[in-house]
Amino acid sequence: MTVPFPLLVAAILLCAPRVLPIRRHTPDPCDRTILPPHRTLRSDQMTVLINGYSESRIPLLTSIAAAYSASPSVAAVLVLWGNPSTPAETLTQLSRNLSGSDAPVSVIRQKSASLNSRFLPRQSIRTRAVLICDDDVEIDSRSVEFAFRVWRANRDRLVGFFARSHDVDLSRRAWIYTVQPDKYSILLTKFMIAKTDYLYEYSCGGGDHMGEARGVVEEMRNCEDILMNFVAAEGAGAGPVLVGSERARDWGDARNEQGRKEVREAGLSSRREDHRKRRGECIREFHRILGKMPLRYSYGKVVNSVGEQGLCEKGGKLVFCDHQVSN
User: Fold this and answer.
1) In terms of Cα–Cα distance, which of 158, 163, 180, 152 is closest to 245?
2) Pick the catalytic residue: 135, 136, 197, 225?
3) Has residue 21 got a pLDDT over 50?
4) 213-232: string of b/e by CB count within 10 Å (b at 16+)?
5) CA 48 to CA 183: how far, in whole Å?
6) CA separation for the pair 218, 168 (Å, rounded)
7) Residues of the signal sequence (predicted)?
8) Counting Cβ atoms within 10 Å, is residue 20 exposed (0-12), middle (13-18) or buried (19+)?
9) For the chain, percent of residues with pLDDT exceeding 70
């Protein structure tokens, strides 16, 4: 008997196995079982986490990532890309451009533009220290090495080159965000070395209170660095360590008089005219939510070399006395 063709096709379709769509499983970053055991993490090098967002900064980011990769203190560089609208081809090309670097460089597309994502624990981090930095700050290699040596002597504290402070406005009886000439309590994520454990404490610890604090970061699109300083100060029971650099070029600082405007203004954090006021609001909110003020003041700066202090006249100019003036 001949079976009509439509019935034959229907029978084949009914008997054929169903092909289900592939679902990619995203591991829970707070699942400790998927993270490397602490005893296996190396302490002689660090992992660099560069926060990237703007395509206009890719040439600068490429240069910065390559420079960090060349450092003997760096085990790996992770470029954490937070712009969900960037074409995949752009990030693929960025990966190719960085493929010849000394230490391995990986470009990771974040699931969202959340600033909290830069502090997620990651399976690929195999070091006890992470260098958290922005995509618009260039630091000379000697200063990077020096900062890492300082961190190895102060492993519970944050170490970096850019400092700010909290304070109390007595007239309003409120916490504020400021810069003080003689003390500091906050390091910025322009360049911040921290122990890897703090990533877990920030992203997964603290229960509902920390979850609410991270929600403030989401709402303000700012202040993730301040919250990390809260976490580190609580863990260390001490303030951060400010170190001196030989050369720290901040391309993204709005005070730059020259340079490409799109590079200065292309950051992910909200940089409005009331920037300092908003960050003061963050400090007050974190204090209210967490029920404590763990920030601690530090004083002074650690420098790599004392050098000459006296000034001498050479070649018609006042210079440090050990400075050689060419004829």
Assistant:
1) 163
2) 225
3) no
4) bbebbeebbbbbbbbbbbbb
5) 27
6) 25
7) 1-21
8) exposed
9) 85
Structure tokens at 262: 């799109």
Measure CA 235 to chain center. 19
Mean pLDDT, the chain, integer:
88
Please state the length of the chain.
327
Residue 252 CA to residue 15 CA, distance in Å, equals 62
Ranges 24-28, 102-106, 196-200, 280-284: which has the least confidence: 24-28
> What is the pTM for the complete model shown?
0.84
Residue 187 near residue 179, CB atoms below 8 Å? no
* DSSP at 102: S
Task: Output the six-digit token pair for 218.
Answer: 């989401």
Query: pLDDT by residue (tens digit) across 246-262?
Result: 999 999 887 776 655 55
Contacting residues for 308 by C-beta, under 8 A, at least 6 apart: 320, 321, 322, 323
| Residue 315 region by backbone torsions, left for phi larger than 0, else alpha for psi between -120 and 50, else beta | left
Give the separation between CA 124 and CA 245, rounded to whole angstroms.
29
C-alpha span between 310 and 238 (Å, rounded): 34
- Dist. CA 150–CA 317, nearest whole Å: 35
State the pLDDT at residue 5: 54
Q: CA-to-CA distance for 210 and 291, rounded, in angstroms?
A: 11
> SS3 of 45, please?
strand
Q: Is 136 in the active site?
A: no
Strand locations in 146-207 (E): 159-160, 163-169, 174-178, 186-187, 191-195
What's the pLDDT at 54?
Answer: 94
